[in-house]
Specification:
6-stranded antiparallel sheet, OB fold (Dihydrolipoamide Acetyltransferase, E2P), 8-stranded antiparallel barrel
Length: 266
């Protein structure tokens, strides 16, 4: 599994001192320490949730948060943050990223923030422009996707953050529709309550007579799985003729056409 590691810790002297640097960060240009604090309440917020294949609950929230920033002149004024948070609510960790704008008396200070969320707090980096100067600073805050940012800091002794791994373990579909499965091959297990063909086991509805079929018979079965059920139910069975090899069949899920699949789900 490919993983992207986000680690907002040990960022050289910036993290150690908790400062924001303005007035240029390249070469021998002048660097000046600036700092500010902010809070911003939730305005327009939308959230959606899902569950990963690993059983983790994920909530993704897009929101606009407005409030007030104070501190050095380039970091003081009305502040607006537009962010998206993706939080694993099972473990209470995630990411918060987006844009910010501070309306200062001399113009706008604006940029982007990327941060790690852990247990109600975030810590990361803010980059942007303050007038004609570049801005690079550590940022930290208490954060709730539904209520906003409190005790926010840019520079000025920002709190150190956590490290997380963002993996490719995506969310499962929350569709409530019926899933359909089909398998063909020899019957490997058969009883009055279930049948197994090519690795697909389906329950047999009450009253359905399968007495004409035996283990080893070559058949095609079609099964359905309703939302909330854990085992598919046999919907149709038909004979495919005698199997000379007595093979129990092989299972292949969602292979492209032409690859000899014996068990397909649709």
């Amino acid at each position: 599994m490919r993983r992207l590691v986000l680690a907002f810790v040990g960022l050289a002297a910036l993290v150690a001192s908790g400062v924001a640097v303005a007035h240029g960060v390249e070469g021998a240009r002048t660097a000046s320490a600036v700092s500010g604090t902010f809070s911003a309440a939730a305005g327009n917020v939308t959230s959606r949730s899902c569950t990963t294949s690993g059983g983790k609950s994920i909530t993704v929230t897009s929101g606009t948060y407005t409030g007030t920033a104070s501190g050095d002149a380039d970091l003081a004024g009305a502040i607006t943050l537009r962010t998206q948070s993706a939080i694993n609510t099972t473990d209470d960790v995630g990411t918060v990223s987006g844009s910010f704008k501070i309306k200062t008396t001399s113009g706008d200070t604006a940029g982007q923030l990327s941060s790690v969320y852990d247990g109600g707090s975030l810590a990361g980096l803010a980059t942007g422009r303050a007038g004609k100067s570049a801005l690079l600073g550590n940022v930290s805050a208490a954060f709730s996707p539904t209520t906003g940012f409190t005790n926010g800091k840019i520079g000025g002794g920002t709190a150190g953050g956590s490290a997380i791994e963002v993996s490719s373990d995506g969310c499962q579909s929350s569709s409530s529709g019926t899933q359909r499965s089909e398998a063909f091959g020899s019957i490997s297990a058969l009883s009055s309550s279930s049948i197994t063909v090519a690795g697909l086991t389906c329950s047999v509805p009450s009253g359905q007579d399968l007495s004409s079929y035996q283990v080893g018979a070559d058949v095609v079965i079609q099964c359905t799985l309703a939302s909330g059920d854990s085992t598919p139910t046999l919907a149709k069975i038909s004979a495919r003729g005698h199997s000379s090899s007595g093979s129990s069949g092989s299972q292949s899920i969602r292979k492209p056409a032409g690859h000899g699949q014996k068990h397909r789900r649709r």
